[in-house]
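1st attempt posting a full record on here, be nice pls
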Amino acid sequence: MGIRLTQLLHVPAALRLKPLAKRDSPVGEMSRRPALNMIRSAFWPTVALAVILYFAGAAIVGQNGLFSLAGYRHQRAEHLVTLQTLQAERARLAHHADLLDPRHVDPDFAEEMVRKQTGQIRPDEVILPAD
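the predicted structure (as tokens):
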């Protein structure tokens, strides 16, 4: 009273698989045709997997990947320190430019500049800023 799977699915006899004992080829002989078909059918999925792995590896380990993120944070901190130093230097130079404005020149700063440029400063002399 057992029902076979082929009876349930209504598979035609021409499409049914033969048992191992009734196959046409001898048991010891390997056919190259299934191996070639397997290689052909696996080629494009293998290529796609290789491409996906390449881009995933580049996203993690590459020049701009996740592992280089810590380096970027360190560089950013260094650049911020440099930026603050340059901003302080710029503010100092802007202050000196304001002191040399022709409309209202600071006499002490002007004297200091003239003495520096003409070499009238002695080595033991200390110039105290007016600020």
